[in-house]
User: Fold this.
Amino acid sequence: MMMTNTLTLVLAWMAGGVLGAFFFVGLLWTVRKSLLSAKPALWVFCSLLLRMGVTMTGFYYVSGHDWQRMGSCLVGFVMARQIVTWLTRLPEERQARQVPEASHAP
Assistant:
């Protein structure tokens, strides 16, 4: 019984990661597409409806009315947000966050 519950939570976590990747990569794509569009508000609104609809439906089915699966799915979703944010940073921003080495020369 314990193994089944653990496996269910891991699968919910992975599903949350997939939902998060879909949501945030879709958001990135929408922002880039809307910058070049003649009707950016339409792109943003339609994308929001699609991304929220898919994500909320996914959360509903993954949770199965169980708060633990919902929480596990949410953790995966937030982790996907962090990963997408980190992957889409500019190289200059990544270097700025690194700690500079101490100089040992006199």
Observations:
- Residues 2-35 form the longest helix (34 residues).
- The chain is about 80% helix and 0% strand.
- The chain has a mean pLDDT of 89.
